[in-house]
Amino acid sequence: MGKNSVNDSAQTGATETFRSLAEAAWAVRENAYILGKTKVGCALLTSGNKMFVGCNVEHRFRSHDVHAEVNAISTMVANGEQEIRCILVAAERNNFTPCGACMDWIMQFAVKGCLVAFSSSPGSEPTIYTAEQLMPYYPH
Ligand SMILES: [Zn+2]
Fold it and tell me: Which of 66, 85, 88, 126: CA 20 to 30 A from 16?
């Protein structure tokens, strides 16, 4: 399976879903607080189709940096939700996937078949992976 391929179940209805996730992720990305170069936005959908967003918030003590995915996931949990159906990350990068720590957070709340997408520019076609593709040997 190539890195841009999407399985059949992922494709169904995915276009509209990812369009709204991408729009929200690019919008919240504007609020990113960065000391480095990369603003990141993230939007996720829960199993009940509620959307939560987050941006990266960097700290002068860089070990305190909050990544956009963790921000969105924390907001989801703070709002009483705990199941991620799909999550999209927006950043001006050619290729980008959540870092290992963020994948740990995603895997903790991912439902079976959870999708992880990346948008490299507003309005572009997102690259869509399954969480399984990115973490094929993750312990369950
Ligand atoms: Zn991260």
Answer: 66
Query: If you ran DSSP here, which 8-state letter would residue 79 be given?
Result: T
Report the separation in Å between the CA atom of 113 and the middle of ligand 1, taken as the mean of its atom positions: 20
- Return d(Cα 13, Cα 80) in angstroms, integer: 26
* The two three-digit tokens of residue 49, written as one number: 């189709």
Q: How far is the centre of ligand 1, averaged over its atoms, from the C-alpha of 37 (Å)?
A: 15
Residue 74 CB contacts under 8 Å (≥ 6 apart), including other chains: 54
Using alpha carbons, select from 82, 136, 130, 137 the residue that is nearest to residue 105: 82
Residues contacting 125, CB < 8 A, separation 6+: none
Q: How far is the CA of 99 from the centre of ligand 1 (A)?
A: 4
CA of 101 to the centre of ligand 1 (A): 6
pTM: 0.89
The rounded Å distance from CA 50 to ligand 1 centre is: 22
8 Å CB contact between 130 and 10? yes
